[in-house]
Specification:
A hairpin with a 2-residue loop joins strand 1 and strand 2. This protein is 48% helix and 12% strand.
């Protein structure tokens, strides 16, 4: 594998290079507010783009859009380049695409409920085991019945259908708890309030559109506007980032050792991501950070302190760029000591002391060499970017978006027939059939009443009732028995003999 080096900065008239091939081992940019983290991020993104590596970054503060336009040289930049042993500043912008989950400051970013999948969605919603099982049931029933789950209204319709038909579905899919369905619905409501309604739908983002190059072979830098997203919709922000990493992991082939990353992610203000993400979601992010490097994808976390990143993730980071940290309290001193111990040693540098003495745009840098071993930490001036330092004007951004090759592909929302529409038709058909059955029954009842009313009443003696016939028969039976008893008592058995004798005698004669 060829070694690809890029300039990160320099000191004492000597430039310093880092191995870009090792970016798949991930990295971190940390430092207090105002120490130069954003410029360092911009320099790295620009350098990767020049090497043909596509870049994706979440712009939390709104000041990264300047990557799209050329920067201007000034005396300070010229002087800094001289201290790093560099010359020949060439102001130029990078090929850039702008994205936004709600489509306000970039192309809309969408995915479908089906593409999100039940496992990732359950983690994002913070569901327990029982509720996760119900969600899996919804997805399975939808698959078995050819119902597409594209947006949140599709999932709500599916939850309602499964709940109302739980008895019929129990044999094949297991019992569905009404309480669990209600809990999932409440979590969806929270997600909708954070703006997820626009995130789920079509056309869904094609991951390959984030991994393109321009005609000159430069990697395209994708900038997601997250200025509102991080503060107003932190859970949605976490869900989006995890979904994006999951899609890359599932769709990209194994890369093994690569000469250059296939894609590099920069997650600015990472502490917001880790502080506000649900525990289940945090575990998924940690797992993805460990696994996704096998796909040739590198991740850089940008935060105010290295300790903002969980230890499980921090241990995966091969490149560390640390700007100044402030030590105002005993707790701050303890943090600085812990951070200093995380860097590879350098006998010529007191790391703990240097951390508090770094100037703006100055950093402690350690990366990985060709064999994957950490290089000794060095104190460097970071190379200034050749693109504009500062955001674009609104008109400039709008112009970039209007000329983007992705505009025609993602701007128009598509709402094709899916689970919601199909289940709604079934419900309407069921209601119609029930109404028709009730109408027919009412008509038959009216016909019976009309037929009964139209029959003429019978003349003469009415037919005796069952009770009347019974009493008459009983009376006749009683009368016959009484008569026989009276005759027998008066004449005795001689009558019967006399009669028989006369008859038999007459026959004899």
């Amino acid at each position: 594998m060829a070694e690809r080096m890029m300039v990160i900065g320099g000191a004492n008239g000597e430039r310093h290079e880092i191995n870009a091939s090792m970016a798949v081992r991930h990295g971190m940019i940390a430092g207090a507010t105002g120490t130069g983290k954003t410029v360092t991020l911009q320099t790295l993104a620009e350098s990767f783009s020049r090497m043909g590596v596509p870049v994706f970054m979440a712009d939390v503060k709104g000041d990264l859009s300047g990557l799209a336009e050329a920067g201007m040289e000034n005396p300070k930049i010229t002087d800094r380049l001289g201290h790093m042993g560099l010359s020949g500043f060439r102001g130029s912008g990078c090929p850039t695409l702008f994205w936004d989950l709600d489509g306000t400051k970039g192309h809309p970013v969408r995915t479908t409920i089906s593409e999100m999948g039940p496992l990732l969605l359950a983690s994002a919603l913070g569901l327990n085991e029982t509720q996760t099982g119900v969600l899996y049931t919804c997805f399975r029933v939808a698959d078995d019945n050819g119902l597409l789950l594209l947006d949140i209204k599709d999932l709500r319709a599916m939850l309602k259908y499964v709940s109302e038909n739980s008895k019929d579905l129990a044999e094949d899919y297991g019992l569905v708890s009404t309480a669990s369905v209600g809990a999932i619905g409440r979590q969806l409501l929270i997600l909708e309030d954070q703006g997820a309604g626009g995130f789920f739908g079509e056309p869904a983002l094609v991951i390959g559109d984030l991994m393109i190059r321009d005609f000159s072979g430069n990697g395209v830098i994708n900038i997601l506007d997250a200025t509102r997203l991080v503060s107003a919709s932190p859970r949605l922000y976490s869900i989006f980032l995890l979904w994006l990493l999951s899609e890359l992991f599932e769709n990209l082939p194994e890369a093994g050792e690569v000469e250059l990353p296939k894609l590099v992610f920069f997650f600015d203000e990472a502490h917001l991501l880790f502080d506000q993400a649900p525990k289940a979601l945090l575990e998924k992010i940690e797992q993805m950070a460990r696994l996704i490097r096998s796909k040739g994808v590198g991740i850089f976390f940008i935060s105010q302190s290295p300790l903002d990143v969980p230890d499980e993730v921090l241990g995966q980071l091969g490149m560390k760029i640390l700007h100044a940290l402030r030590a105002f309290t005993p707790k701050d001193r303890k943090t600085i000591r812990a951070v200093a111990e995380s860097f590879p040693g350098n006998p010529d540098l007191d790391v703990e002391e240097a951390i508090t003495q770094l100037g703006v745009g100055e950093a402690l840098v350690s990366s990985l060499d060709r064999s994957g071993k950490p290089t000794p930490v060095k104190r460097l001036l970071i190379k200034p970017p050749e693109s504009r330092m500062g955001p674009l004007e609104d008109k400039e951004r709008e112009e970039k978006i209007s000329h983007s090759p992705m505009k025609a592909k993602y701007e128009v929302l598509i709402d094709r027939e899916s689970a919601y529409e199909i289940l709604q038709k079934k419900a309407e058909e069921k209601d119609r059939m029930e109404e028709e059955a009730m109408r027919q029954e009412e008509e038959r009842e009216a016909e019976r009443k009309e037929e009964k009313a139209s029959k003429p009443a019978k003349q003469g003696r009415s037919r005796q009732g069952v009770g009347e016939a019974f009493f008459k028969s009983a009376a006749r039976s009683i009368g016959s028995q009484v008569g026989r008893s009276i005759v027998k008592a008066a004449f005795g058995k001689s009558i019967s003999r006399g009669l028989l004798g006369s008859i038999l005698g007459g026959l004899g004669r």
